[in-house]
Amino acid sequence: MVGAPVYLNVYDMYWLNDYAFGLGVGVFHSGIEVHNIEYSYGGHPFPLSGIFENAPKDPDELGENFKFRESIHLGDTDFSPEDVQKIIRQMGSEYQGDKYHLISKNCNHFSGHLSKTLTGKELPPWINRLATISGSMPFIERWIPAEWLTPIASTTKIK
Prior knowledge:
By secondary structure, this protein is α+β, with helices and mostly antiparallel strands. The protein has six helices and five strands, in the order E-H-E-E-E-E-H-H-H-H-H. The protein has helices at 14-20, 81-92, 107-119, 129-136, 139-143, 146-149, and strands at residues 4-13, 28-34, 37-41, 51-54, 66-77.
């Protein structure tokens, strides 16, 4: 059986990069593309999975502040589309929307976890450099507006 290619799709979050490039780092959104579906993780105020699917390499589905940067072939996987869906459902309990944090649990952490599961490979280190640097120099996080770090609480309630 020939494996399915697995890609890391990287997007510039250029509204944040205006600030981050001044610190010598970039802020990127990433998703993992496999079987013609891109899987990403994002924040929302609910204790439900924050993993979502979108068309590969389509920044319009992500919003006006995202620009497609590049696609990196990470390797191949022997997991079927059904197996990948099961993996995503299992990961949903760990990657809940209300647990999203720009520094400590972001889309790049998710992409790294999924890449490791599907291919056994890590992401290139530059993808999540801001989070890595902030982990060793916590004062950097204090420079980032709080509303960028975690999802803003919504007044909407699930009944």
